[in-house]
Structure formats: C-alpha cells, structure tokens
Amino acid sequence: MNLKTIIEKIAGLVDPDENMISITNIATLNDGDDFLELKSSITLSVVNIQEDKTLKNQSVYQKNTISNTVDKYAHPTKYLNISILFASYNKDHSQYLVGLEKLQSIIDFFQQNNSFYYHLNTNEVITYYTYDGKSDTEKKDYSKITFLLVSLSMDQLNQMWSYLGSKYMPSVLYEMRVLPVQKNTKVNEKAIEEIGINLWENNKNDPTGFLESVVHPNP
C-alpha cells in the first residue's frame, strides 16, 4: 500500500484539471502562504491515521492470485483508516462563496463515488464504475477503499480545529477505509510434499492397538 500515491490518485479523480485541490498540511498554513492568494483553494490534509481494530487479527497466509498459490508473510496484514479533511480558504474574502461552491463539488463527487479500487501491484486507483468493467480475474488484484462522510458535533469540531492549531474553515471530513499494509516480507518454508497418517484402535500409546500407517503424497 502506497499512501502517497493513493492520496495523489484520488485527488486527481476528484480534480482532474488539477486547479482546485492543494495537498498540504493544514496545520502548517498561515495567512502568508502564497498559494492561498492565487486561487480559491481546497486543501486536502491527512488529519488522522488509525488501525482498523475490527480487522486486527489477520492470518499470515494470503492467496497469491498471480501464481494461484498461498504465501506466508512474516507478520499479519494491517488495515488502516485514514481521516482526510477537505477545507476551503482564501485570503481574498470575496472568494468565500466560490470556495463553498468548490467544496460542494467535492461532496457531490463522493456522494456519487464512495468506493475506489487500488491495484496491489501497479498502484492504480479507479472508481467503482471502471472496476465494474474489469473481468473477474482482473478484479482479484484490486483492494477496495471506501470513503465515509464523518459528521462532527460542535464540540468535536472545536477539538479538531484546536489540535490542528487553526481557525475554523468551511470543511468536510471523510474516513478513507480500509488500506492494507503488507511489506513483501515472505517466509521461506519447505513445501509439504507428503502427509503421513497413523491409525490406532484406541490408545496410540498401546502398540497392540496399531492398525495401519498411510502416506499420502501432497496433491
């Protein structure tokens, strides 16, 4: 999972002309920043990263869709939920309504596109409509990402802007979930080539009850 690429690709889907969204840390902005003077900007900021605890206990075994085998990793895959804040601000107060209009366009986009699909090998990010046109074999190489609108109470809103160290800006918060994190640290283990089965009548510690021993080759 490449978080940088995913953020950039999703911003590109929302703003294909690249004239609306600026990816920046909103906590570091101040009125002296030049780009705030150039356009009615929508800032995209990652404001929180959490592990999805509902998916915490994962197996270290994963199916390899390319070789149709099972891979064993050194550690289980972790899944992340990323909080993304879109905020509108411009030093030119006459652009306030223009900023709200652009913020509305972002809300409209995610209302129509709340599911995205991330290609595990190429870092491609596509909408559901593009994904739906893929074959079943192609779909196996994609991981689903969902955007959920987060509604904050006035107290929660106050706390968020306080820890961001900024004054309130018209904004909308989304939770991007779920992003798999798994480095390709595979464990090399000898493949199982045969399975031996020993059968006893009752007690396996009693030699007189031994029935038979069978060895099956691994299919």
Task: Provide the gyration radius in Å.
Answer: 26 Å
Q: What fraction of residues sit in β-strands? A: 35-45%
The number of distinct helices, counting runs of at least 4 residues, comes to 6
* Number of beta-strand segments: 11
Biggest pleated sheet: 7 strands, mixed
Q: Tell me, briefly, the overall form.
A: elongated
Q: What string gives the helices and strands in order?
A: HEHEEEEHEEHHEHEEE
The stretches of 5 or more residues where confidence is low (pLDDT under 50) are none
* Strand ordering within the main sheet: 1-2-5-9-8-6-7
Which features does this protein show?
two-stranded antiparallel ribbon; 11 strands; alpha+beta; 219 residues; elongated
Summarize this entry quickly.
It comes from Chryseobacterium shigense. This is Pvc16 N-terminal domain-containing protein. The protein is about 25% helix and about 35% strand.
Task: Describe this entry's structure for a reader.
This protein is of the alpha+beta class and about 220 residues long. The protein is built from 6 helices and 11 strands. It is elongated, with a radius of gyration of 26 Å.
Task: Please give the structural blueprint.
Elements: H1 3-14, E1 21-23, H2 35-38, E2 41-51, E3 61-64, E4 69-72, E5 78-89, H3 96-112, E6 115-119, E7 125-127, H4 128-132, H5 136-139, E8 142-150, H6 154-163, E9 171-181, E10 194-200, E11 210-217
Parallel strand pairs: 1-2
Antiparallel strand pairs: 2-5, 3-4, 5-9, 6-7, 6-8, 8-9, 10-11
InterPro entries: Pvc16_N
Domain Pvc16 N-terminal: 33-189
Pfam families: Pvc16_N (PF14065)
